[in-house]
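Notes for week 9. Today we move from apo structures to complexes. The key idea is that a small molecule is not decoration. When we ask for a structure prediction with zinc ion present, the ligand SMILES becomes part of the input, just like the chain. The input block below holds both the sequence and the ligand string. Read it once before you look at the output, and try to guess where the molecule might sit.
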Amino acid sequence: MEIKSYPNGVFGATTYLVYDKESKEGVLIDCTCAVDEILNFIKQQNINLKYILITHGHFDHVYCLAEFKEKFPQIQVLMHKDDMPLLNQVANQCSMTGVEEIKVPCIDALINDDTKNLKIGNSEIKVIHTKGHSKGGVCYLIGDNLFSGDTLFKASIGRCDLFGGDIKEIEQSIKEKLFKLDDNITVYPGHGDKTTIGYEKKFNPYFGSNY
Ligand SMILES: [Zn+2]
């Protein structure tokens, strides 16, 4: 699996392009920056982009979604239904943070833990609902790679003081869902450096070393 990071979104939000070298099928995880660069790369490499997988409805993770969709209208955008109220407030989120307002992006399909048949090449994409940073936040597991949005960061966790946030829920999501995954899984967060599940179980200050 090939993974390219575009970390220059608003507030350092990262867009990931994930694709299978053989089948050339790929997905974007969030859509926050580098639209032309990504589109050029996709064309050059002949990548068949299947979906844009949104981790959650905060504006910094969907900042370029409308622009991307305009240039690439056939792409399907997927998100969890519980973040629709958050996404519908994108204009408010922008004005509260002093960022230029964006159009509300369009979501083509809603996903949850039971979603099946999302694939790139032979690799299944597993949806893991991890509420806590927001009600409808999800992580996407593709092979040994977890795209954790704003749920789990390297040695940190997502903030819980925004709309729909809940510290108990995020701790539960991480302990009961993410820390049950293999230690060797690489974690690609929505902001900042990558890490692994094993590293976070040992060193994440929010959890001690009881895992
Ligand atoms: Zn967020």
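The chain has a mean pLDDT of 95.
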